[in-house]
Amino acid sequence: MDHQAIAQLLGNYGEFIGSIVVLATLVYLVIQVRQNTKVLETQTLESVMTGFNDLNMRVAESSELAALLAQGRVDPSTLAEVDQLRLTSVYRSYANHWLKLLRLRERGVLSEADWARFGLEAAQSFEHAGWRQFRIENRVFEDLYEELEKLDGPPVSRTTFGRVER
């Protein structure tokens, strides 16, 4: 075998090995992207739960805030002006959180099933008097309201500022 044939044979082996390395690298990258996606989804759900837990713990730790929410559920017009402002601030915190969930769903980060659960709870909340008034006075969340209207299902929670009506 002459030098040129050997060089050609080594070149062919080199190309073959190079192709195998490229393929292995692509497989590795696919695995890494999948793992990274799972980590991102987990972090997103953790963030969602932490956000709701923080809001709910503020209510649980303050009987004054809990009473404000209970009255706002029934008839917010009976609240003093400062309490109406406090109620609106709490509602805005929840609405901002639900809007974040909607945006995560639109970006494909939050699953449709998770959106449906959280969205149904939001829609259930908006059935109460205080939330209905908030909706009228806060059109900035219009796209959230429109998406919530598309959801249909039974009550999903007994903790949305009042009793579940059946």
> Count the helices. How many?
6
Largest sheet: none
Q: How are helices and strands ordered from N to C?
A: HHHHHH
Task: Tell me which oligomeric state these chains represent.
Answer: single chain
- The total count of strands amounts to 0
Estimate the global geometry from the Cα principal axes: rod-shaped
Low-confidence stretches: 162-166
Structural class: mainly alpha
Helical content class: over 70%
Overall pLDDT level: 89
What is the rounded Rg? 27 Å
- C-alpha end-to-end distance: 89 Å
Taken as a percent bin, the fraction of beta residues is: under 5%
What's a concise summary of this model?
The chain has 166 residues and is mainly α. Helix content is 78%, strand content 0%.
Outline the structure in words:
By secondary structure, the protein is mainly α. It has a domain at 41-150. The chain has six helices and no strands. Mean pLDDT is 89; it is low at 162-166.
Topology:
Blueprint: H1 3-61, H2 63-74, H3 81-106, H4 112-125, H5 129-137, H6 142-150
Helix pairs in contact: 1-2, 1-3, 2-3, 3-4, 4-6
Task: Identify the notable features of this structure and list them briefly.
166 residues; 0% strand; single chain; disordered C terminus; mainly alpha
